[in-house]
Amino acid sequence: MRFQPSLYMEYAKDLGHFGAEYNLAASGIACPFTMAEMGVDARVLEWDPAPTYGHPALREEIARRYGVQPEQVLAPGGGSSLVNFLLGAALLDRGDRVLMETPTYESLEATLASTGAELIPFPRPPEKRWALNPEEAGCHRNSRLKLIAVTRLHNPSGMDIPEETLLRLAHCAEELDAWVLVDEVYLDYLPPERIRVAALLHPRLITTSSLTKVYGQGDLRAGWALAPADLVARCWRINNVLGVNPAVVPERIALELFRNGSLDRLAAWARQRGEDHWPLVEAALSNHPDLEWVKPEGGIFVFVRHRRWQDASAFVEFLARRYRTLVMPGRFFGRADGFRLGFGGGRPELEEGLKRIGEALEEFGG
What we know:
Blueprint: H1 7-13, E1 22-23, H2 56-66, E2 73-74, H3 80-91, E3 97-102, H4 106-113, E4 118-123, H5 135-138, E5 145-151, H6 163-176, E6 179-183, E7 205-210, E8 223-226, H7 229-239, H8 248-259, H9 262-286, E9 291-293, E10 301-306, H10 313-323, E11 325-326, E12 328-329, E13 338-342, H11 347-364
Parallel strand pairs: 1-11, 3-4, 3-5, 5-6, 6-7
Antiparallel strand pairs: 2-8, 7-8, 9-10, 10-13, 12-13
């Protein structure tokens, strides 16, 4: 099997070599609470008998939170990348086709491409507020289309996908005997009344998510999928030759966070952080007439484009090296003409980072 490397992840892991002081590249929060403040104590170190397919109680809590049955929960003890890979391995063969939203998170592309499938662009144009056109899925009726892959909230723009669009994609997939993978790691940035996971809408819609972005618990590698039970069972069989059993302690911590209400507290904090910081971002960007953006529907990041640039990579590196400020280059999402700007860090860091972006634009010629 020939894996496609994730250039995004390699770049993200090497960001330290810039010696930056202000990081506006992140799309997730840093957890503001200690484990003790979230009600996690040493009892998580007590060993349970090794469960066969993930901790049953954790799968039950995930199922309860999102309104599905425990047998519909795949929680293999890795982040959403592992979950997405297991689904790709279960659903795709070499030569199959994936309708892949673009721009999108490059690591998701790499994960699905590593199955040997052919990725076909499914445009989300900024001129349409990054919206998908479901009619474009129908043009592949005579192909080997097996999967449609999208993100919600959209990475890198922060825009949602209307339920009507998801249902139209699901109906198209059903006609083609295909599936729709909806990566929803950012969905919980939305207000609770707007959150309904895709897997509840139609049997052909698969939800994947994790505790990494909205909840700031990336070190737990707690990812999951919500899917029909027979598909989940196929993924568990594949995982038997990969991860086998999840690590017990991270599972126990995740279980406690699901049980004790900490996730609601973290999500509320993350939403408020985004709401509080967006006016600062919008005001700073408005000082530069050549910049274009769409206000995100939720979250702590926005995709910024420059009217006169075809490739913003040189500016991003200039900003990092001269102004010690990081943003994420748009080339990692398939839109080289801009960059993703995160605003989920501390307010002083954000204010100074935005100031430096403005100064860098003036000096660079933007």
